[in-house]
Amino acid sequence: MTPETIKIDTLVVGAGQAGVAMSEHLTRLDIPHLVLEKNRIAEAWRSARWDSMVANGPAWHDRFPGMEFAGDPDGFVAKEQVADYFVAYAQQFNAPIRTGVEVKRLRRNQGRPGFTVETTQGTIEALHVVAATGPFQRPVIPAIAPREPELHQIHSAHYRNPQQLPEGAVLVVGAGSSGVQIADELRRAGREVYLSVGPHDRPPRSYRNRDFCWWLGVLGLWDLSSSEPGKEHVTIAVSGARGGRTVDFRRLANEGITLVGRTQSFEQGVATFSADLAENIARGDENYLGLLDVADAWVERNGASLPEEPEAREMLPDPECVTDPILSLDLARSGVTSIIWATGYATDHNWMEVDAFDEQGKPRHQRGVSSESGIYFLGLPWLSRRGSTFIWGVWHDAKHIADHIATRRNYEHYLPSGE
Ligand SMILES: Cc1cc2nc3c(=O)[nH]c(=O)nc-3n(C[C@H](O)[C@H](O)[C@H](O)COP(=O)(O)OP(=O)(O)OC[C@H]3O[C@@H](n4cnc5c(N)ncnc54)[C@H](O)[C@@H]3O)c2cc1C
């Protein structure tokens, strides 16, 4: 960019799937805009995911409406291909994306409309700004993490493959989609693995010959507008790895992973775990069986001819690590040399100096339209519904925001006849 100030109607910050979707809708509505991306398009899919990661949903589902993935629509696309998809998608409509430009600061203009945005390559003035900087931006490692320098500790965002870790056993903390897949990969690579399992949902990968993404669609569950009260901290364990299989903690235990409850603390090289493992697994089963129940009810109500699958209700017996759980673990004695924190992410909007946040610093918005007129958020968890952070979901949220910007522009450009 040139050093002089650029003026643009709408600035989109971030070119992950959210930024690309936003640009498509703005292009359709002829709204002049620019997308700034500090790294590359869909960078998170390239460098914040482990090497073997595939999409959690099948190719027919985890995509934008305007383009299909090459290959098997029921397959699970590898993460690099997902990133390539967004690059190709952006090329389709010549998205005005500038990569390698970081937005450092955003302020409302005084005495005139719009915002001033400082970037690593100059200043931009925009009337509307869409923050599409990602739902999972800053890896979070809880404060209980031990201080021992000899332990190799990384967040799941920095895990790549088993070879990257020093020899020895691994404690994986967190059994959502990332934690279970990483633990499984490490076990298959011959590592001794402890997996700390908290409260979770674990939907069936497929049931009655339909993937769970399809079930959530026909049952209207992608459209839930907020998480159930009390379930805000419940993670979801689902995987497309190795063709896609239901996450089954008992099977993981039978394959050699030692399950433990929620990680509570570390003191002098000893990890302690809550005695909640059996309960967490039982609640996960409830969630799993509950989905089978509503799916069966849907089949009956609609007279759908989907094959019955009674074996989906069969559970393996509880393994010993569940019936007689380990409550404390001397890490050195157990040979644990690494801890992988699969403990989630936070957002980072520090660059936004506008009145769009509540007392806790959370974005204040309605379906992405923020309380600061002209500022928008896209891609946040539950922005409008359960599907908002997912590939297909963000596309629909982006459409809503683009429509809102178009409506605002109509007011901004209005002149009474004769004026
Ligand atoms: C491990 C994992 C697996 C997932 N798997 C799936 C899946 O299979 N299917 C699915 O639908 N969803 C999946 N998701 C959820 C979601 O699709 C991804 O998190 C996706 O990356 C979110 O896209 P986004 O565009 O909202 O954010 P991001 O992909 O994070 O993009 C935001 C972009 O903004 C840029 N940026 C940030 N700050 C600035 C700044 N100040 N200036 C300029 N640029 C900036 C970043 O570099 C980044 O490229 C997964 C998430 C995780 C964590």
From TrEMBL:
GO molecular function: flavin adenine dinucleotide binding; monooxygenase activity
Keywords for this protein: Oxidoreductase
InterPro entries hit by this protein: Auxin_biosynth/cation_transpt, FAD/NAD-bd_sf
A Pfam family recorded for this sequence: Pyr_redox_3
Protein name as it appears in the record: FAD-dependent oxidoreductase
Organism: Jejubacter calystegiae
